[in-house]
């Protein structure tokens, strides 16, 4: 480790997961790289160094896994776009991308806008609702499984399975151990579904199976590729929509600014992704000895890139803990990653979140919490478990 500063605290206890930013600030203050004593790996908590690491996929590779534990990395490394490098990664990404190109997704836009408007209209008529269960989960569950072609009889456990999968990307703690059976059940279901051809024709999933049948894809990569798109497309979007509602409900000045200028919707969503990053951290492995800031990291080291810490770096963002939907550099966030391994589902996530926010601006006059919200504690996903709100209809 040399002179690399050490940070002693376990970053994945319930208390830290619920209130992580004091710890992230302390890590940033220590330096561009810190040694996590509780997890026995390096961490990059500052923006510039995190951004550089994400862009440099040759030095900070994903092919040995991006989880913070050896078990998940041993099971999944090399089988999905998230955990491959170079030509293999590019090939898998092309196979997946055929049905999720901007042109392909544009045909969904009108449908998503209608779904979001109808959903918000129903909730406005109710007046009070849970913005997690009734809104941030409801829209992605209407859109994503259909896009992937997921069987209707396999949808009732999707959120449970998705959350369990993200638990396994953190350290192999008690939370991750409890999640293992659910994650295994999801992969087993995906394997069986792919083998039986049970995905809707014309869907993303059917396209992946077709590629395997043409010999363009190894059979054992079909399920990881499907799950690798489906799971983040659900959980990161659910996280982001819930966080956007929470931030607007607790910052009435920003809600008023958005009502006054609906063109701020994309920037408001970027600011949400910056301030409340859906993914806390993924890891990389160094392929060669490398210098980050004034720290030397040896070859073969596991390095956790903390998106959530980098996105509040005082060195990059003025007033980093403030929610400001007019922030000029909000779009520089790392909430969806960056570079080769940036989130493949971010186009769809933006489409859904923008549609929800536009529907709110169009239909909602006042927005406020009506009870104390509850955080969902997950090793990797930052989200709300319960977000009770009250709204009043916008007069026309």
Provide a descriptive summary of the structure in words.
The protein is α+β, with helices and mostly antiparallel strands and 396 residues long. It has one domain: Cytochrome P450 (Cytochrome p450). The protein is 50% helix and 13% strand. It is built from 16 helices and 13 strands. A six-stranded mixed beta sheet has the order 1-2-3-9-6-4. A three-stranded antiparallel beta sheet has the order 5-13-10. It has a two-stranded antiparallel ribbon with strand order 7-8. Strand 11 and strand 12 form a beta hairpin. Helix 6 packs antiparallel against helix 8, helix 6 packs parallel to helix 16 and helix 9 packs across helix 12. The longest helix is centred in the middle third of the chain and has 29 residues. The radius of gyration is 21 Å and the shape is globular. The protein starts with 5 loop residues before the first strand and ends with a strand. The mean pLDDT is 94.
Distance between the first and last residues' Cα = 63 Å
- The figure for the number of domains is 1
* Residue fraction in strands: 5-15%
Structural class call reads alpha+beta
Largest sheet: 6 strands, mixed
Name the CATH superfamily assignment.
Cytochrome P450
CATH topology: Cytochrome p450
Q: Helical content, roughly?
A: 40-55%
CATH architecture, by name, is: Orthogonal Bundle
Which word captures the global form? globular
């Amino acid at each position: 480790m040399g002179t690399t500063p050490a940070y002693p605290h376990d970053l994945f206890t319930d208390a830290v997961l619920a209130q992580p930013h004091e710890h992230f600030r302390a890590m940033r203050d220590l330096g561009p790289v810190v040694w996590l004593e509780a997890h026995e790996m390096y961490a990059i908590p500052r923006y510039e160094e995190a951004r550089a690491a994400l862009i440099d996929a040759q030095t900070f590779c994903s092919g040995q896994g991006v989880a913070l534990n050896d078990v998940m990395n041993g099971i999944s490394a090399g089988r999905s776009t998230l955990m491959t490098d170079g030509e293999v990664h590019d090939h898998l990404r092309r196979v997946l991308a055929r049905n999720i190109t901007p042109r392909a997704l544009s045909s969904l836009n009108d449908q998503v806008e209608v779904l979001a408007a109808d959903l918000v209209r129903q909730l406005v008529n109710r007046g009070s609702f849970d913005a997690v269960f009734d809104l941030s989960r409801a829209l992605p569950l209407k859109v994503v499984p259909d896009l992937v072609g997921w069987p209707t009889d396999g949808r009732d456990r999707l959120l449970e399975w998705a959350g369990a999968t993200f638990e396994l990307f953190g350290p192999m703690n008690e939370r991750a151990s409890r999640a293992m059976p659910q994650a295994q059940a999801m992969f087993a279901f995906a394997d069986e579904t792919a083998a039986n051809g049970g995905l809707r024709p014309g869907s993303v999933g059917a396209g992946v199976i077709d590629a395997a049948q043409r010999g363009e894809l190894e059979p054992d990569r079909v399920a990881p590729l499907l799950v690798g798109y489906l799971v983040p497309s659900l959980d990161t979007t659910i996280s982001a929509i819930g966080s956007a509602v929470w931030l607007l409900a607790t910052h009435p000045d920003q809600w008023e600014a958005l009502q006054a200028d609906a063109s701020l919707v994309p920037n408001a969503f970027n600011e949400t992704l910056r301030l409340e990053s859906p993914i806390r951290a993924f890891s990389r492995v160094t392929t060669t000895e490398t210098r980050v800031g004034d720290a030397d990291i040896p070859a073969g080291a596991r390095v956790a890139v903390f998106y959530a810490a980098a996105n509040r770096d005082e060195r990059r963002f003025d007033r980093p803990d403030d929610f400001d939907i007019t922030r000029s550099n909000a779009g520089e966030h790392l909430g969806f990653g960056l570079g080769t391994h940036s989130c493949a589902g971010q186009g769809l996530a933006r489409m859904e979140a923008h549609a929800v926010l536009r529907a709110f601006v169009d239909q909602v006059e006042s927005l406020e919490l009506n009870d104390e919200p509850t955080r969902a504690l997950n090793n990797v996903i930052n989200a709300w478990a319960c977000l009770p709100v009250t709204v009043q209809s916008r007069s026309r």
